[in-house]
Amino acid sequence: MKIAIGSDHGGYRLKEEVKKYLDEKDIEFVDLGCEGEEAVDYPDIASKVAKEVQSKKCDQGILICRSGIGMSIVANKFKGIRCALCHNEYTAKYARLHNNANILAMGADDLTTGEAVCILRMWLATSFEGGRHEERIKLIDEIEKENMK
């Protein structure tokens, strides 16, 4: 598994902590920015991560900004991306289990490092359930085809 990770300046510190966790677990990742706490435009970072996942260069992505909202909005503009803003282990579990989300967004202002790691741990441990949920993913794909031209 290879993960693309990115943050804006507001999520930089939490991103660095999440990277430590990924290193500890020997999970390969590519950091697509930002490089510090100087202001950057979050759409640029979210686009880089979404493109890595969309092109299948990375299996999954992680995006972190202050709220997680802006990053998730941008990522979901890319065909084939299902980015979920998760606030706890429950939302992380069901984003993967039922929605087969491929990018995890988190809000640095809402989470401690410990909470973010728990969310990520659940995200990584949960596989898509398929079954009845597969039909819903197909419906999402059809909506994309109709509306993302």
Keywords:
globular, 6 helices, 48% helix, Ribose 5-phosphate Isomerase B, Chain: A, five-stranded parallel β-sheet, 149 residues, alpha/beta
Count up the domains: 1
* Order of helical and strand elements: EHEHEHEHEHH
Residues in β-strands, percent: 15-25%
CATH hierarchy: architecture: 3-Layer(aba) Sandwich
Number of strands: 5
CATH class, named Alpha Beta
Main beta sheet, described? 5 strands, parallel
- Helix proportion: 40-55%
Radius of gyration: 14 Å
Sequence stretches where pLDDT stays below 50 over 5 or more residues: none
CATH topology: Ribose 5-phosphate Isomerase B, Chain: A
Walk me through this protein's architecture.
The protein contains 6 helices and 5 strands; from the N terminus they run E-H-E-H-E-H-E-H-E-H-H. It is an alpha/beta fold and 149 residues long. It has a single domain, classed as 3-Layer(aba) Sandwich (Ribose 5-phosphate Isomerase B, Chain: A). It has a 5-stranded parallel beta sheet, sandwiched between helices. Helix 1 (12-24) links the parallel strand 1 and strand 2 (28-31). Helix 2 packs across helix 3 (69-75) and helix 4 (89-97) runs parallel beside helix 5 (113-125). The longest helix is centred in the C-terminal third of the chain and has 16 residues, at 132-147. The termini are far apart. The model has no long low-confidence stretch (mean pLDDT 97).
Concise overview:
By secondary structure, the protein is an alpha/beta fold. The chain has helices at residues 12-24, 42-54, 69-75, 89-97, 113-125, 132-147; strands at 2-7, 28-31, 60-65, 83-85, 103-107. The longest helix is centred in the last third of the chain and has 16 residues, at 132-147.
